[in-house]
Amino acid sequence: MVIYLDNANTTKPDPEVVKVMLEYFEKKYGTPGGEFGHIFDEESREAVEEAREIIAREINASPEEIIFVSDETEADNLAIKGIAWAKGKGKVLASKIERKAILNTVKRLGEWGFETYEVSVDGEGFINLEDLQSNLKDAILFATHLGNFEIGTIQDIKAISEIVHDKGALLYLDANHAFGKVKIDVKKLDVDLMSITAHLIHGPKGIAALYIRDGVKLKPLLDGDVRERGIRPGMINVPAIAGFGKAVELINYDDAKRMAKLRDRLIDLLLGIPDTKLNGPRGEKRLPNNVNVSFAYVEGESILLHCDLRGLVFSTGSACYSQELLPSHVIRAIGGSFEDAHGSVRLSLSKWTTEDEIVKAYEIIKDVVEKLREISIYGGKR
Amino acid sequence: MIKINVIGKECPIPLNEFRKALRKAKVGEIIEIVGTHELSKGEIALAADETGQEILEIDEKNGVWRIVVKKVR
Fold first, then answer.
1. Is the pLDDT of residue A189 over 90?
2. Does B33 touch chain A (CB under 8 A)?
3. Model confidence at A322, in pLDDT bands (50, 70, 90)?
4. Based on the structure, what is the number of domains in chain A?
5. How does the average pLDDT of chain A come out, rounded?
6. CA distance A161 to A48
7. Is the CB of B39 less than 8 angstroms away from the CB of A301?
8. What are the residues whose beta carbons fall under 8 Å from the beta carbon of A254, sequence distance 6 or more?
C-alpha cells in the first residue's frame, strides 16, 4: 500500500465526485447552448450553472463573477495578461515565491513592454509589505497567493489588498492551494481576481475557476464565441465542472483542523532527525496540509526516489528540466542556501491521511536519510 | 536484459533511470547499469538492496562502474 503525501501536487478524486461526473459522460453528454438549447444541452447548462452557484456561494461571490477555465495555469494567464491587455500599459508585480505559471506570465509581459517587479519575502515566506508598498508606482496589478504552494505560508491578504488598492492597482490572488482548507470570503479579503482549482480538493483535473469581481475589465486570451461571457470562449467541460461543484459541496473545514494536527505531528517527528530544518512558518499561518523540510547533506530527489521505491510518495521543490536540476526558487527566496534548496522535500496531506501513515512516513524518511548520509559525498558533514 | 548507460550523468539521474528500469522489468529480468558518478553507484546498490532485489555484480574499471541486478520481486 502506497502512502500518498503529494496532495499539493494533486489529490485523489472523491468517489462521490467521480459518480457525478460519470453521469455527464454516459448519459447527459450535451454541451450548454443558448436560450433555445435542446434537452441534452439544457441538462448540461443546468449542471454548469448549479456548479457555478455552489462555487460562488463558497467564496461569497455572485455566480456571474465565476468563469470556468481549464486549470490554474490558464487562470493565472487570463487574469494577469487579461488585465495587462485591458489596461494597455503599467507595472505588473508578483512576489518572488509564486508558482512558475505566475512568474513566467509576468516575465512574458516584461518582454512585451510592461514594467515588472518581483516583491521580496521574509525568511518564512511572508511578503515584504514595505517592498510591495514602495514599488507600486504606476502599478496596475499585483499577483500573489493566499497559501504558498511549496512552503505553506498563508499571507495577510487583507493587509496586502489595502496597500495595493491604496495605490490604485488590482489584486490577483492564487488561492488554489488554500481553497478548501482555509475559509475564503472574496469580499472580506477584498480581492479583484482569484483562482481556485478542482484537482486540489478531490475534484477532477482539467477544471478551475477564475473569480472576476463585478466591474473588473479584462481581455480574453482566446477569441471565439460568447460562452463564459466571451472571457473564456470554447467548449465547456461539463463533466469536470459538475465534478468541481460536487467537490466544493464536500468541503468540510473539520478536515483542515484534523490535517493541521497531523501536519504538526509530522513536523515534530521530522525535526527530530539531526540537521533538519523547517521551511515556512508554524501554526495557523501555515497551510494545514503542508510540511516542507530541508535535510542537510542529502539531495531531496535522492530521498524522494528511495522513498518512492519503498512506497512513500511526495515532492521536492527542485525542478528538473532536461535532466538538469534547478534548486527551488522558493527556498532560495526565503534565504535558504543552494544545499537547503536541493535538500528540501514537500509532504502534503489530505482529508484521508491517517496518523499511522504519518508515523510510517516518518520512519521511512528517517531510515532513508540516515542511509543516504552514510554514503553521502559530504560524509555526513558539510 | 535491460541495459542503462548513465556515464557522465550525475545524481539523481542514474538512480532515477534505475528506478524506471526496475519498474519496467519483469520478475527474473536482469538490469545492467553503467555510470561514472560515484555517489550514484552507492545509491543504486542501496536502492536495489532495500527493495529486495538480487545484486549479481558490482565492479569498477577506469572510473566506470557497473552494477548488475536481478529483479526478484
1. yes
2. no
3. very low
4. 2
5. 94
6. 31
7. no
8. none
Cell numbers for A186 = 472574496
So what's the pLDDT on residue B11? 83
Q: How many CB pairs under 8 A join A and B?
A: 42
**Residue where a domain stops, chosen among A249, A272, A302:** A249
Band of pLDDT at residue A382, cut at 50, 70 and 90: very low
What's the fold here for domain B2-70?
Translation Initiation Factor IF3 (3.30.110)
For residue B43, which residues of chain A lie inside 8 Å, CB to CB?
302, 306, 372, 375
**For residue A317, what are the CA distances in angstroms to A99, A312, A320, B41?**
11, 17, 10, 24
Interface test with A, best of B11, B22, B38, B53 (most A CBs within 10 A): B11
Range A106-114 average pLDDT: 98
Range of the domain at A366: 252-375
CB A177 within 8 A of CB A183: no
**Encoded amino acid at A189, one letter:** L
- Interface probe for B, chosen from A295, A308, A309 (most Cβ of B below 10 Å), is A309
Query: Rounded to whole angstroms, how far apart are CA atoms A194 and A329?
Result: 23
Q: Are B14 and B40 in contact (CB under 8 A)?
A: yes
A75 belongs to a structural domain: yes
Least confident of A302-316, A321-335, B17-31: A321-335
Adjacent-strand bridge partners of A119: A95
This complex has an ipTM of 0.83
In this structure, the answer to whether residues A262 and A215 fall within a common structural domain is no
Ordered by start, the domain boundaries in chain B are 2-70
Give B38 to chain A, closest Cα distance, Å: 9
Annotation marks residue A320 as catalytic = yes
Residue A7 belongs to some domain of the structure: no
